[in-house]
Amino acid sequence: MYQHLDDGSTTACYSHESLKMIERQLAIIVPCMNEEVLILQGALRGIPHHCLIILVSNSTSGGFKAERAMLDHFCASTQRRVIIVHQADPGLASVFSAAGMPHIIDHGAGLKSQNSAGRVRSGKGEAMMIGTVLAKLNGKQFVGFIDADNFVPGAVHEYCKVFAAGLYHALNSPPLGPYCNDNTAEEQPLAMVRIKWKSKPKIVDGKLVTQESGRCSRVVNTWMNRLLTSITGHDGHADFIKTANAGEHAMSTNLALQLNFATGYAVEPYQLINMWERSGAFPPTSPGTPPGSGVTNLQPASPAASKLKVRILQIETLNPHIHDFGKGEEHIARMQAQGLGTIYHSQLVSQKVKEELHGYVTEDLGIITGENGVPEEARVYPPMGGMDFKVFEELRQCYTSTNTT
Ligand code: GDD
Ligand code: MG
């Protein structure tokens, strides 16, 4: 339902039933590496009851054991089902390999003496890929991602409600904007919802200090907007992207299967780059390497994969985003470098923006870079939709489904 306001804006309202319909089809994937179990439990409790929870852990064996024990209790007390898998499970690596995604395997990991098949590489992007496969195997039409170190369960709840409302809106509203007017009516539009936090407070000397965005987002958003302005030639885009690093986001499972996922923390910024590069709306400025071509011969997931049309919503939430911010300066620097690397190596970046970014990275930022101060190019995987999903049925042996009903 829409209401047009005097200031030219429009309010959209959706019923509780409409949101529930999306939630029943939504898998919430929680990547988790050595987070405090009590914090993780709080985050899980914030996830609406009808969503399927998929926890992809990369924790130590002790941490994983504690997570499983917590889940048993959580599932019994809430009467719900959670899937839990460990990223370094060797069985998972062999199934990914057999299904046609050997690129995700680190063959140096694991015990060679036991003829190990290696392990799925560490990284948040890789955890998200595992979760997406499990969502698809469980028949879910949408995937959402929530970090395990969210301190405020109410914020998690709001993110999930916003995922549902945003996805519903994207799938049911008329096409808007210059790049959206050629969606074919019979196809369900591909949709993505990216969360923009209202504030990201820090605790300094026991006091809550508000700030609008995190250090990484500030830098990566700025350069993502420089890129967007240069490719669209539209000055109004100077402050348009507010969610380059949206750790919390959701999308159609079909979109997740068609996208090229990037490794680690490059995953969210690269989604934007990948969708713009593959939209067919912007001519490449450099030949570059087509996404995934350096690592595979897999065919795109579907004919549509070569010209992606996606409705992307950036939605601001009300709760403060408070998470574990004690992961260190190097952690932030690595994340900035990974984000800026996706922009620097994009096929769409102009020489001018590239040179300016290079200057910024080497002179002002002082972050980890590769040779000659060039940000490293992220590892990018082929679309998961090209894999043989029948093989994945074997995956069931690698995960625990904690289920009390
Ligand atoms: N399974 C798995 N494997 N989980 C991981 C891994 C991994 O290799 N690495 C990190 N995680 C989990 C963490 O435990 C956490 O739940 C979530 O992924 C995010 O990782 P953090 O290390 O907490 O990242 P951050 O808080 O600094 O950054 C977050 O926000 C950024 C935007 O500010 C992330 O979501 C980033 O991706 C995002 O860009
Ligand atoms: Mg965090």
Spell out the key features of this protein.
11 helices; about 400 residues; binds magnesium ion; two-stranded antiparallel ribbon; binds guanosine-5'-diphosphate-alpha-D-mannose; eight-stranded mixed β-sheet
Topology of helices and strands:
Layout: E1 2-4, E2 10-12, H1 16-23, E3 26-32, H2 37-45, E4 52-57, H3 61-78, E5 82-86, H4 90-99, E6 105-106, E7 119-120, H5 124-137, E8 142-145, H6 153-172, E9 190-196, E10 202-204, E11 207-209, H7 215-232, E12 249-252, H8 253-258, H9 267-277, E13 310-316, H10 329-344, H11 351-365, E14 399-402
Helix pairs in contact: 1-6, 2-3, 2-6, 7-10, 9-10, 10-11
Residues 31-33, 35, 56-58, 87, 122-124, 127, 147-149, 214, 216-217, 245, 247, 265, 268, 323-324, 327, 331, 335 line the site of guanosine-5'-diphosphate-alpha-D-mannose.
Question: How would you explain this protein's 3D organization?
Answer:
The chain is an alpha/beta fold and 405 residues long. 36% of the residues lie in helices and 15% in strands. The chain has eleven helices and 14 strands. The strands form four sheets. The chain has an eight-stranded mixed sheet with strand order 13-9-12-8-3-4-5-14, with helices on both faces. Strands 1-2 form a two-stranded antiparallel sheet. It has a two-stranded antiparallel ribbon with strand order 6-7. It is globular. The structure holds guanosine-5'-diphosphate-alpha-D-mannose (GDD) and magnesium ion. Magnesium ion (MG) is lined by residues 147, 149, 323-324.
